[in-house]
């Protein structure tokens, strides 16, 4: 009887601890969501309302002036969305394919030049040729200026992501891969039918990182894109920010009062929207993928 009572008390204490942990995590999640709600609310507020009441969960003065300004020319926004989506999809798929293949080669101890190739890849994490030589190479020798390729080619191989993938692939049982080789499987078949299915969490995690990298990039467009048909969303929003700041700083010149703060919030909503929809699809792989690919 005493043992049963003790076990019941232990279960009650364990349940209480779990409930407390869940309560703390729930409160933390709410705190993390609040800034996003404030951004959305701020995008539907007026400039005067924000100046008077600050950022609130419910707009003190509801206004759609920010979206009216940004979407004044909807074709430009739609075209920029199309460019960003195309770059993100193509760049993420190709980048994940190339980096996973490279990481698989670097993870195999039987590969003769593994150390030399690893040094060649990871050397670029610490040193580069500089912006001016890189720009000259891209524009004068590769002739990639004002092309769709320049928006994703420089970011296809990111050494840090290769390191995560290589570490994860190295933890796969070598006996399983060797058994496939003895059965006559080629390295490509081993990679495609064994390594990739067993590495779904880390591939999904790195894939999400790639999506974020390509979606948020505007630096390449700033350097190499003059064609308005190839302007991605982030660079377009950057241009809008610069124009708004100029007009807000010179109201006597333009004669227009700009809703600077609401427009900034509206741009954040437009930029983060697709990513907010993608993340729930891969979140179940995210933590596990980071754990599998973490450095020892």
What does this structure look like?
- The chain is mostly helical.
- 74% of the residues lie in helices and 0% in strands.
- The chain has 14 helices and no strands.
- It has helices at residues 2-43, 47-53, 65-70, 74-107, 114-122, 131-141, 159-170, 174-182, 187-198, 200-216, 219-224, 233-249, 251-254, 260-292.
- The chain is flat, with a radius of gyration of 25 Å.
- The model is unreliable at 292-296 (pLDDT under 50).
Brief account:
The protein is mostly helical and 296 residues long. Helix content is 74%, strand content 0%. The chain contains 14 helices and no strands.
- What does the main sheet amount to? none
Task: Please tell me what the overall shape is.
Answer: flat
Question: What are the low-pLDDT stretches, counting only 5+ consecutive residues below 50?
Answer: 292-296
First-to-last CA distance: 47 Å
Q: What is the CA-based Rg, rounded?
A: 25 Å
Helix content: over 70%
């Amino acid at each position: 009887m005493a043992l049963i009572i003790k076990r019941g008390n232990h279960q009650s204490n364990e349940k209480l601890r779990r409930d407390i942990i869940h309560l703390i995590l729930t409160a933390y999640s709410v705190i993390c969501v609040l800034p996003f709600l404030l951004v959305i609310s701020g995008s539907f507020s007026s400039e005067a309302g924000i100046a008077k009441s600050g950022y609130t969960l419910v707009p003190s003065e509801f206004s759609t002036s920010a979206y009216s300004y940004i979407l004044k020319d909807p074709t430009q926004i739609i075209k920029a969305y199309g460019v960003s989506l195309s770059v993100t999809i193509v760049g993420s798929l190709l980048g994940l394919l190339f980096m996973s293949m490279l990481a698989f080669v670097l993870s195999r101890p039987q590969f003769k030049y593994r150390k030399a190739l690893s040094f060649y890849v990871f050397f670029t994490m610490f040193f580069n040729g500089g912006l001016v030589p890189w720009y000259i190479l891209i524009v004068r020798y590769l002739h990639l200026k004002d092309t769709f390729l320049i928006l994703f080619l420089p970011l296809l191989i990111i050494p840090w992501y290769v390191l995560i993938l290589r570490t994860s692939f190295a933890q796969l049982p070598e006996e399983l891969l060797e058994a496939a080789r003895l059965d006559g499987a080629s390295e490509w078949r081993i990679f495609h039918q064994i390594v990739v299915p067993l590495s779904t969490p880390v591939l999904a995690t790195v894939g999400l990182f790639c999506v974020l990298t390509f979606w948020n990039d505007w630096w390449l467009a700033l350097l190499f894109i003059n064609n308005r048909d190839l302007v991605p969303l982030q660079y377009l929003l950057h241009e809008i920010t610069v124009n708004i700041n100029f007009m807000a700083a010179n109201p006597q010149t333009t004669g227009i009062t700009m809703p600077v703060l609401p427009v900034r919030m509206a741009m954040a909503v437009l930029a983060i929207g697709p990513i907010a929809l993608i993340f729930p699809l891969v979140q179940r792989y995210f933590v596990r993928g980071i754990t599998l690919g973490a450095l020892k």
